[in-house]
């Protein structure tokens, strides 16, 4: 019947399961056991190694004891019939049958002979629970390190009588008088290894780890349980043990010599319902031997719930859990639960009145007679009972209500568990009943029974138990509803016999029958009043001394169940009652106890501890004795470092001030922030228009901590962000800087009001409101939790959530916090898409950002306890905890925070006295405190400059912190240590105060010359040896220096079991260490250098064993529990016991390394194996010491031999680290001087390793325990005080969750309480609750978030500037020198319009001046006969874009924008207005005939509804008839008369089509001209723009086709409008004939204002400014006689424009990019629809030759933006054959006709133009650089490259051409000649001999016809091989060339 199977065949598992099943069935009234039975027994077994290991408690021997005892029920017990003992033998318990004493306490000092291969073990007797019986057992029959491989059977000896050869454990158990009533099993009764301690006494060692593999993998599963107490906790009372703590199982891999001398904490796993078994530990310091023997028991079930007989005791620990703790339960996304009572805590919380006492109304109606609470209840019971209302009615209470506390929390838990998860309702599972009230109460009893004496019940554990019980009870139904397809065999519903009310008391009593009266059941027949009265009676009579919980049940057949549970255990009631205090009440209570002198009894108790009299007497005596020696001895030992500081600060090279620079992680986070801001701006919600902001301003809100405030100013100063943002001047003052940081205190509103005013007055400034430490003060401004609190409470809500901030379009809110959980609820203001999480260091094992420092945060600290480090970074102090526990029972009226503080201060005081020479005081402190104090005082002595490290002593309660400061300060002064280290009281609302001596030291170290300087942040205390008493209920973002060495958190409020509270306390120790240093090596060095006594201390022997690792090489991954002190009855004894072995009494000066290593206190073992281990370790320790010290020996030490080297190194270790090696540390000055030379500065060590953290035992167990998935327990806690769980039915968190997944988990499963500022943030439309301009940045504490967001401000500013700037072309006009130098000026500089008659006199300037045509052929005139060798050399067209000169310009308010700009003003213009939906546009066909194309042209217009008023439609069919045109005589400032056409391709995103601001809001008609294949994408991006879609035949055409169709369409429309308006009586010539053709890259327009004074030749001044396009167009449209001009344009802007260029305000020359075209005058001049390049030059030349006027307004200029995509770059020439894109050289663009040349997929015209641009010298060799003999180009301009000049002539009759009489041409270019070119025309021109001719035609036939028609063969010689074609396919209609030479 044993329930362990280690070492047995696996079939025994089935036998046990079968046996238990039969047994349970026999005891059951029901025929069918519960289905959970097979689950727990069979399915759970499959994963036993992981699941049982994660969910057991030690001390289950009490369960087995009950199994051995007869049950109280009528069911016959299954007894084991023992063999009767022989007559005459001894049968006394604790003695063997030979009469020899076997009890450990009796024979611990005896010398026991142990045969080879045997081990001494302790056996547990059920009749002697407080004793162990010593046995010698063959180790082969014991488990190995993994808990396996124990041989079957037994072999042992009796150590009492010496009898040997017991081969059966049954026989052996009879011999040692175990007197068992069940089958003896060695696994049940052999509990502990026995080892010798430092004094040689035999003591209990580590647990014999049967099935140890389960322990190795065991981390208590925590699931979603949040360790919520039965109460809202807010107390710093005694350690509160949660159900999820990891059981303190000694390391299975630790050698047997390792002593486990502490109370083994055995705690319930996170939730009794999340693993397959439960821990039933009941350990207490009083029951050390009895209850410290953990044994693994099988999980079991209570049979069926209607058992007629009692089950075996092991059933009492049954937990309704699933077989797999890793199974994911599909929980509903939005589970609704009944509204909780205002005072309820669904999780852990702080509530003002959570304890409802007396006749206060409760959620349940009180009924029956009132119950009187007895007087003096607290005085008699030494505690205040806490009564939790359960089911039904609760009676009124009256009388002494001050001595009792009533809470409705359990009632709320019961009620919540009645709600069924919606996930099953959707499958129609309404028939499934919730868990019954009887079952709830019975499970509660089971839960209470299995709690250990030092544990406190957790409400969330109960919730999980109820949930799993319900799920498993209805498993078949749930699975049935979850099946999508019905199965062939439907699930059989489980037959559950409902428990009756009558059975409940009996079953509850049965469950509680074996817990030593820890749980007492009272059954009432009428009402709860009876039970309460009986409970009070029993309390007064002292009959419930051992009882921790009283369960009162009133269960009648005819009525509903009434119940309540009273907590009467002293420890539990204390923790629960203290946890119900709010922070304010907690501080008030502590203050009251301090003010009224109630703590004096505690002080008097401490004074009696010292055998030499009062501590004050000792201090005075020491002080007086020390005064006489101070001038001599103390000056060398204490003041010497200070002297060295002043004279030789440079001696220590370890001190270096860290440079402030951005780390790669911070840069990455800043860029992520910027990316999210851009995402908000780019979203369609239009909530942030980045384009409208010109600069950045900010305000940083920090908690009301003076240190945090100064710290933020410090970071702000060093970041330089104010100067970068242009907010600070060169000499930035601190007062100026303080404007940007605000403390959230009573004075914050003034600064905030100024901030709001600035934001309203500066709409073009983006204000970033940074809420740092954002988890602090989330109290609602409406619903303040603390009515009596100061005005700053709720200030965050009042300021950051005010209407002005929410609605301001230029305020961006950034919440920054390490603990974002309270901002991630169902009602949060922050969108999940606006969360930025600090990136992890590694991804798939790859380091993402290389940094020279490694961050140590919570996970790394936890990892140090798991990964086999020699010294874990997280520790707890068992001696301290034991003393606190004992004093808590002695002083029940004192708050536990007071007791803990006074004990710790006492320990520090005693440690300081011990280090100073009063060695007798070392027994009145703990090892840990002594280590801290000793290393602190010695740290400054090890550095020539006096550098030391910081110790942080965290005391949350400010009054207690003040008391601690005064006491420690007093002790320090009396011990004459005032110059050795400083004690600093850090209070949130005040600055730092330190002594003048230390200020001077800091100034020297940091090279500060300011006489008034004082440290204002903790960071400035770098290197100062000090104790910082860190007070305040919560840390408020204060950062600590790198010299932090110890973080003492033993006084933190351990009852505040919420994730934020715990993590922010541990965040104080977060640290950066050098990533080059390996942690293991560092910690070993630390042990050897600074703390050799740790090697021999009782509390740390287990750690020492692990320092170098065991010989087996198996270092357990299970966390090592630090040993606990046991004697809680006598606190002084516990302190003495824990530190008895701290000091090596022999003088280290005389000790060799071998002597030290052989010391019995270093290592002790009871086995040969471990003796070997120790020998190896001794050698390693020696070697380690030698290695470490040799690093720091001076060069002269190298001459020593190795023995001397080791010996001197050993001496230096001991003398430097052990003040107890002699009476005083100053008694060996020679060796102190040696230390000064060889020891490393403590600063250097501190920077290489993170600080050591001391925690309360409770917190330590929570932090270091994990669930089955490896998730730390702390992560599963309720996230914050101000939120609560949305439902009990929620899935467990997982270790694999990312930060984003955790956020989504909290957003689904937590809701804010009414006190939370987000409580009222709920709308039906979920998206409406998110504030669109709120971001949340979360990252671990102290990792650099401040630097990241300050850098973000800088790059945000740069981006805004970049958004408001564009790269515009800034190039000088070309060919300026070729202009005619003339003194004649046609207009005055101040003329604003040209005079028509004067303008006609201006000659046309043929020369191209636009710099984009720098690589184009020069157009020669009669005047340009000079040789231009200085023409720029040819360069590749592809390089032109890259190499063109640009400058960055700030966008003005009149700029044109691309699609990324959207401000509120142009929403409607862009079509984002709700009235203009995207689909509200219509497609209209528009056709007109054009004779030159020979066919009708079919165009399509896409016209949005909002733009239909610009067009005329036929009435019956809504056919598009024409585009409305205004009249020439119209005068209006509100609209632009000329329609604007913008041809574009490939620039749907980047084209500058938003002309709203450029037109200054004026009405205008803007048409985008797009190709057919791009229509959809342009329509998507510009839904409110009119589009003209070109016919599909022009999909591959160039810009010439677009210009051609625009002009022809406009002329056709002009004719239609003339006809239409002529019917209205309007003359045709009055219709406005102009259109604007604009490039899609025109961004801004400028105007020159000329100031003329005097006559025309006098000096004038001019200025250029940005103006709106509206102003320019209206000015041009108002030009007198404007209709006489064919084209009007403007200059291209250049910063290098000189006054000479604008001396003449108007020019008759080429115009480009932005032109006004008179379609009436240019009716007969067409754009060439085939052209890709230079079509505007070609058109200008033909317009001029037609006698038309082209006017350029030199006063106006256009800026062109550099756009890297689209335009001409969208044309790619590639092979038509090859699939792979292969670039083709321009030389291959032509080929011989009919050749097999590779065909190119490009238009023929493009190939022609590209070829001529780069290779025209092949056609015109005489023309290269022969500018005086240009190529004659007839009727067209083609770019032949910059080395060839052309002369343009028109063949049209009456055309204007230059005089060619004196010109001889080097070539002739005939391009697609029309009929106007005749032979006689060509014969007018003269050519050089050898000049070349190039004729280009559409086909070979036309080529021949042209040669014949023009009689070319008369003067030109042709050869067959001189014929070419463009290299494209025949179907693409190539062009053909014919070249010839002039005869």
**How would you sum up the major sheet?**
12 strands, mixed
Helix content: 25-40%
Oligomeric description of these chains: single chain
Helix- and strand-based class? alpha/beta
The gross shape turns out to be: elongated
- By DSSP (H or I, 4+ residues per run), the number of helices equals 57
List the uncertain runs.
1-15, 29-79, 212-366, 484-496, 631-650, 785-789, 1077-1238, 1425-1441
Cα end-to-end separation? 125 Å
Question: Main attributes?
Answer:
54 strands, 15% strand, alpha/beta, 57 helices, 8-stranded mixed β-sheet, elongated, 1943 residues
Description:
With 1943 residues, the chain is of the alpha/beta class. It is built from 57 helices and 54 strands. Strands 34, 35, 38, 39, 40, 41, 42, 43, 44, 45, 46 and 47 form a twelve-stranded mixed beta sheet that branches. Strands 32-50-49-51-52-54-53-48 form an eight-stranded mixed beta sheet. Mean pLDDT is 76; it is low at 1-15, 29-79, 212-366, 484-496, 631-650, 785-789, 1077-1238 and 1425-1441.
Give a brief description.
This protein has about 1950 residues and is an alpha/beta fold. The chain is built from 57 helices and 54 strands. About 30% of the residues lie in helices and about 15% in strands.
Give the helices and strands, then pairings.
Blueprint (H helix, E strand, L loop, with lengths): L10 H17 L7 H12 L1 H4 L9 H8 L35 H4 L10 E8 L2 E11 L17 E3 L10 H7 L10 H4 E7 L5 E6 L4 H5 L71 H4 L79 E3 L3 H5 L4 E4 L7 E3 L5 E3 L1 H9 L4 H4 L11 H13 L9 H15 L1 H8 L20 H10 L6 E6 L3 H13 L8 E6 L7 E6 L2 H10 L3 H13 L4 H8 L7 H23 L1 H10 L15 H19 L12 E8 L3 H14 L1 H4 L9 H4 L3 E3 L4 H14 L3 E8 L22 H6 L2 H5 L3 E7 L17 E3 L4 E2 L2 E2 L5 E4 L1 H9 L7 E3 L1 H13 L5 H20 L11 H13 L10 E6 L2 H17 L7 E5 L9 H10 L20 E6 L12 E5 L10 H8 L4 E4 L4 H12 L10 H8 L22 H9 L13 H6 L9 H25 L9 H16 L11 H10 L3 H7 L3 E4 L1 H8 L18 E3 L13 H11 E3 L21 E5 L6 H19 L1 E5 L26 H5 L17 E2 ...
Parallel strand pairs: 6-8, 7-9, 10-11, 13-14, 13-15, 15-16, 16-30, 17-30, 21-27, 22-24, 22-25, 23-24, 25-27, 32-50, 38-39, 38-41, 39-40, 44-47, 49-50, 49-51, 51-52
Antiparallel strand pairs: 1-2, 1-4, 2-3, 4-5, 7-12, 11-12, 18-19, 20-26, 28-29, 31-33, 34-35, 35-40, 36-37, 41-46, 42-43, 42-47, 44-46, 45-47, 48-53, 52-54, 53-54
Helix pairs in contact: 1-2, 11-14, 13-16, 23-47, 24-47, 31-32, 31-39, 32-33, 32-34, 37-41, 41-42, 42-43
């Amino acid at each position: 019947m044993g329930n362990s199977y280690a070492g047995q065949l696996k079939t025994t598992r089935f036998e046990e399961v079968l046996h238990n099943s039969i047994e349970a069935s026999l005891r059951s009234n029901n025929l069918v056991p519960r289905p959970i039975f097979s689950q727990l027994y069979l399915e759970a077994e499959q994963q036993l190694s992981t699941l049982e290991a994660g969910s057991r408690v030690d001390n289950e021997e009490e369960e087995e004891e009950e199994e051995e005892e007869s049950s109280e029920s009528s069911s016959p017990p299954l007894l084991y019939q023992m063999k009767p003992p022989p007559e005459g033998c001894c049968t006394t318990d604790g003695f063997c049958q030979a009469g020899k004493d076997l009890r450990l306490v009796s024979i611990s000092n005896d010398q026991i002979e142990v045969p080879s291969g045997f081990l001494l073990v302790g056996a547990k007797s059920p009749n002697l629970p407080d004793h162990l019986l010593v046995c010698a057992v063959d180790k082969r029959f014991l488990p190995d390190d993994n808990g396996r491989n124990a041989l079957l059977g037994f072999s042992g000896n009796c150590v009492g009588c010496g009898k040997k050869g017991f081969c059966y454990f049954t026989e052996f158990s009879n011999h040692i008088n175990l007197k068992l009533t069940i089958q003896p099993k060695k696994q049940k009764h052999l509990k502990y290894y026995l080892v010798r301690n430092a004094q040689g006494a035999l003591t209990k060692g580590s647990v014999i780890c049967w099935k140890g593999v389960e322990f190795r993998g065991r981390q208590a599963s925590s699931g979603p349980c949040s360790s919520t107490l039965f109460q809202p906790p807010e107390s710093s009372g005694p350690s509160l043990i949660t159900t999820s703590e990891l059981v303190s199982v000694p390391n299975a891999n630790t050698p047997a010599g390792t002593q486990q001398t502490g109370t083994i904490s055995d705690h319930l796993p996170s939730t009794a319902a999340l693993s397959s078994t439960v821990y039933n530990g009941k350990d207490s310091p009083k029951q050390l031997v009895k209850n410290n023997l953990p044994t693994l028991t099988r999980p079991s079930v209570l049979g069926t719930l209607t058992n007629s007989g009692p089950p075996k005791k092991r059933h009492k620990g049954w937990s309704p859990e699933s077989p797999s703790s890793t199974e994911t339960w599909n929980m509903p996304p939005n589970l609704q639960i009944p509204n909780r009572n205002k005072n309820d805590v669904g999780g852990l919380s702080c509530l003002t009145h959570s304890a409802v006492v007396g006749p206060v109304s409760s959620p349940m109606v009180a009924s029956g007679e009132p119950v009187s609470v007895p007087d003096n209840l607290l005085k008699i019971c030494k505690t205040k009972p806490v009564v939790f209302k359960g089911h039904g009615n609760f009676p009124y209470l009256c009388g002494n209500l001050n001595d009792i506390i009533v809470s409705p929390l359990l009632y709320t838990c019961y009620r919540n568990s009645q709600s069924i998860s919606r996930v099953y309702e959707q499958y129609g599972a309404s028939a499934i009943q919730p868990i019954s009230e009887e079952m709830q109460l019975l499970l509660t009893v089971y839960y209470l029974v299995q709690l250990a004496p030092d544990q406190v019940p957790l409400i969330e554990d109960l919730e999980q138990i109820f949930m799993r019980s319900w799920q498993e009870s209805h498993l078949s139904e749930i699975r049935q509803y979850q099946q999508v397809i019905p199965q062939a065999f439907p699930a059989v519903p489980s037959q559950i016999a409902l428990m009756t009310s009558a059975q409940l008391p009996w079953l509850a009593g049965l469950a509680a029958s074996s817990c030593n009266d820890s749980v007492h059941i009272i059954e009432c027949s009428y009402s709860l009043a009876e039970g309460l009265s009986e409970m009070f009676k029993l309390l007064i009579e002292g009959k419930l001394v051992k009882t921790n919980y009283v369960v009162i049940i009133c269960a009648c057949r005819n009525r509903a169940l009434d119940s309540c549970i009273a907590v009467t255990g002293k420890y539990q009631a204390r923790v629960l009652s203290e946890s119900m205090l709010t922070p304010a009440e907690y501080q008030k209570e502590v203050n009251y106890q301090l003010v009224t002198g109630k703590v004096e009894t505690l002080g008097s108790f401490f004074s009696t501890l010292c055998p030499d009299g009062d501590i004050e007497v000792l201090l005075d005596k020491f002080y007086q004795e020390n005064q006489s020696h101070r001038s001599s001895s103390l000056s060398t030992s204490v003041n010497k470092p200070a002297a060295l500081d002043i004279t030789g600060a440079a001696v220590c090279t370890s001190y270096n001030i860290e440079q402030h620079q951005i780390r790669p992680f911070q840069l990455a986070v800043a860029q992520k922030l910027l990316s999210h801001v851009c995402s908000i701006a780019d979203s369609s919600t239009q909530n942030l228009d980045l384009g409208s902001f010109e600069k950045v301003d900010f305000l940083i809100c920090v908690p009301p901590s003076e240190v945090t405030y100064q710290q933020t100013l410090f970071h702000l100063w060093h970041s330089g962000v104010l100067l970068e943002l242009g907010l600070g001047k060169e000499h930035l003052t601190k007062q100026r800087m303080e404007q940007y940081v605000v403390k959230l205190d009573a004075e914050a509103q003034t600064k905030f009001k100024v901030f709001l005013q600035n934001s309203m007055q500066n709409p073009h400034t983006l204000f970033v409101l940074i809420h740092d430490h954002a988890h602090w003060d989330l109290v609602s401004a409406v619903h303040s939790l603390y009515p009596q609190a100061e005005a700053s409470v709720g200030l965050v809500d009042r300021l950051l959530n005010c209407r002005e901030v929410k609605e301001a379009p230029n305020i961006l809110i950034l919440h920054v916090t390490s603990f974002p959980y309270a901002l991630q609820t169902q009602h949060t203001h922050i969108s999940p898409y606006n969360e930025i999480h600090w990136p992890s260091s590694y991804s798939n094992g790859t380091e993402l950002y290389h940094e020279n420092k490694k961050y140590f945060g919570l996970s790394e600290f936890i990892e140090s306890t798991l990964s086999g480090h020699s010294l874990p970074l997280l520790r707890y102090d068992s001696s301290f905890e034991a003393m606190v526990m004992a004093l808590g029972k002695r002083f029940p009226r004192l708050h536990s925070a007071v007791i803990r503080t006074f004990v710790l201060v006492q320990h520090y005081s005693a440690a300081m006295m011990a280090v100073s020479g009063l060695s007798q005081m070392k027994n009145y402190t703990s090892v840990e405190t002594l280590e801290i104090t000793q290393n602190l005082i010695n740290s400054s002595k090890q550095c020539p400059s006096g550098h030391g490290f910081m110790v942080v002593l965290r005391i949350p309660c400010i009054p207690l912190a003040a008391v601690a400061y005064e006491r420690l300060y007093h002790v320090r002064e009396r011990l004459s240590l005032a110059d050795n280290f400083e004690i600093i009281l850090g209070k949130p609302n005040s600055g730092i105060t330190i002594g003048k001596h230390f200020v001077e030291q800091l100034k020297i170290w940091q090279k500060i010359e300011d006489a008034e300087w004082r440290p204002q942040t903790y960071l400035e205390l770098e290197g100062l040896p000090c104790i910082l008493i860190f007070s305040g209920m919560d840390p408020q973002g204060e950062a600590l220096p790198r010299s932090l060495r110890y973080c003492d958190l033993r006084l933190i409020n351990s009852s505040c079991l919420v994730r934020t509270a715990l993590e922010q306390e541990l965040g104080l120790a977060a640290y950066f260490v050098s990533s080059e240093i390996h942690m293991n090596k560092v910690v070993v060095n630390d042990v050897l250098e600074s703390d050799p006594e740790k090697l021999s201390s009782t509390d740390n022997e287990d750690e020492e064993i692990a320092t170098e690792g065991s010989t087996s090489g198996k270092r357990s991954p299970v966390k090592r529990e630090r040993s606990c002190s046991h004697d809680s009855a006598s606190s002084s004894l516990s302190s003495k016991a824990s530190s008895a072995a701290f000091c090596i009494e022999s003088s280290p000066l005389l000790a060799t390394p071998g002597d030290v290593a052989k010391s019995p206190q270093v290592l002790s073992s009871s086995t040969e194996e471990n003796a070997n281990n120790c020998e190896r370790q001794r050698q390693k320790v020696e070697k380690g010491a030698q290695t470490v010290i040799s690093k720091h020996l001076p060069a002269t030490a190298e001459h020593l031999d190795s023995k001397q080297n080791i010996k001197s190194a050993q001496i230096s270790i001991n003398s430097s680290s052990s003040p107890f090696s002699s009476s005083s540390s100053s008694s060996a000055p020679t060796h102190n001087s040696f230390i000064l030379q060889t020891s490393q500065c403590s600063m250097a060590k501190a920077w290489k390793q993170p600080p050591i953290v001391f925690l309360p035992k409770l917190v330590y167990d929570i932090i270091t325990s994990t669930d089955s998935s490896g998730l730390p327990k702390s992560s599963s806690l309720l996230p914050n005080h101000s939120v609560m769980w949305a439902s009990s039915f929620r899935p467990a968190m997982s270790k694999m969750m990312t930060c984003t997944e955790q956020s989504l988990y909290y957003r689904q499963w937590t809701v804010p309480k009414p006190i939370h500022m987000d409580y009222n943030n709920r709308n039906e439309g979920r998206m409406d609750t998110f504030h669109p301009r709120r971001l949340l940045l979360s990252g671990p504490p102290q990792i650099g978030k401040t630097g990241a967001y300050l850098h973000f401000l800088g790059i945000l500013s740069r981006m805004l500037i970049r958004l408001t700037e564009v790269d515009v072309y800034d190039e000088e006009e070309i060919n300026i020198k070729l202009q005619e130098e003339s003194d004649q000026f046609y207009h005055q500089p101040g003329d604003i319009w040209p005079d028509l008659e004067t303008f006609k006199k201006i000659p046309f300037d043929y020369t191209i001046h636009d710099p984009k045509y720098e690589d184009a052929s020069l157009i020669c005139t009669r005047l340009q006969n000079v040789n231009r060798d200085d023409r720029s050399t040819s360069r590749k067209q592809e390089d032109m874009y890259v190499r063109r000169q640009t400058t960055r310009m700030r966008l003005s308010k009149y700029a044109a924008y691309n699609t990324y700009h959207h401000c509120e003003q142009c929403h409607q213009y862009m079509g984002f207005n709700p009235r203009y939906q995207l689909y509200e546009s219509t497609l209209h066909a528009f056709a007109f005939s054009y004779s030159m194309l020979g066919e009708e042209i079919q165009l399509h217009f896409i016209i949005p509804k909002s733009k239909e008023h610009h067009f005329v439609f036929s009435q019956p069919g809504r056919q598009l008839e024409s585009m409305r045109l205004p009249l020439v005589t119209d005068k209006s400032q509100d609209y632009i008369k000329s329609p604007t056409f913008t041809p574009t391709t490939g620039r749907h995103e980047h084209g500058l089509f938003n002309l709203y601001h450029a037109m200054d809001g004026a009405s205008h008609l803007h048409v985008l001209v797009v190709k057919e294949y791009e229509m959809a994408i342009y329509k998507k991006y510009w839904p409110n723009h009119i589009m003209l879609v070109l016919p599909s035949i022009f999909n591959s055409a160039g810009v010439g086709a677009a210009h051609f169709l625009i002009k022809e369409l406009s002329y056709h429309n002009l004719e239609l409008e003339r006809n239409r308006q002529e019917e209205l009586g309007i003359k045709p010539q009055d219709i406005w004939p102009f259109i604007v053709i604009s490039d899609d890259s025109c961004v801004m327009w400028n105007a020159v204002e000329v100031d003329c004074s005097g006559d025309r030749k006098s000096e004038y001044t001019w200025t250029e400014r940005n103006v709106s396009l509206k102003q320019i167009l209206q000015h041009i449209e108002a030009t007198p006689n404007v209709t006489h001009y064919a084209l009007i344009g403007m200059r291209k802007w250049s910063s290098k424009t000189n006054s000479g260029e604008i001396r003449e305000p108007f020019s008759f020359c080429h115009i480009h990019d932005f032109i006004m075209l008179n379609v009436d005058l240019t009716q007969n001049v067409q754009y060439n629809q085939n052209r890709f390049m230079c079509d505007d030059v070609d058109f200008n030349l033909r317009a001029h030759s037609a006698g038309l006027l082209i006017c350029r307004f030199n006063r106006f200029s256009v800026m062109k933006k550099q756009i890297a995509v689209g335009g001409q770059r969208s044309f790619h020439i590639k092979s038509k054959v090859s699939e792979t894109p292969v670039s083709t050289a321009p030389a291959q663009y032509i080929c011989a006709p009919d050749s097999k040349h590779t065909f190119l997929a490009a238009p023929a015209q493009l190939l022609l133009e590209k070829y001529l641009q780069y290779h025209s010298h092949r056609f015109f060799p005489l023309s290269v650089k022969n500018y005086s003999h240009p190529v004659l180009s007839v009727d067209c301009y083609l770019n032949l490259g910059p080395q060839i000049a052309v002369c343009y002539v028109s063949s049209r009759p009456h055309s204007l051409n230059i005089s060619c009489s004196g010109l001889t041409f080097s070539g002739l270019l005939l391009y697609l000649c029309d009929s106007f070119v005749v032979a006689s025309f060509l014969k007018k021109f003269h050519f050089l001999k050898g000049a070349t001719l190039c004729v280009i035609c559409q086909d070979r036939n036309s080529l021949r016809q042209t040669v014949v028609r023009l009689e070319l063969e008369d003067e030109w010689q042709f050869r067959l091989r001189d014929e070419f074609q463009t290299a494209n396919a025949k179907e693409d209609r190539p062009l053909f060339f014919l070249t010839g030479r002039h005869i």
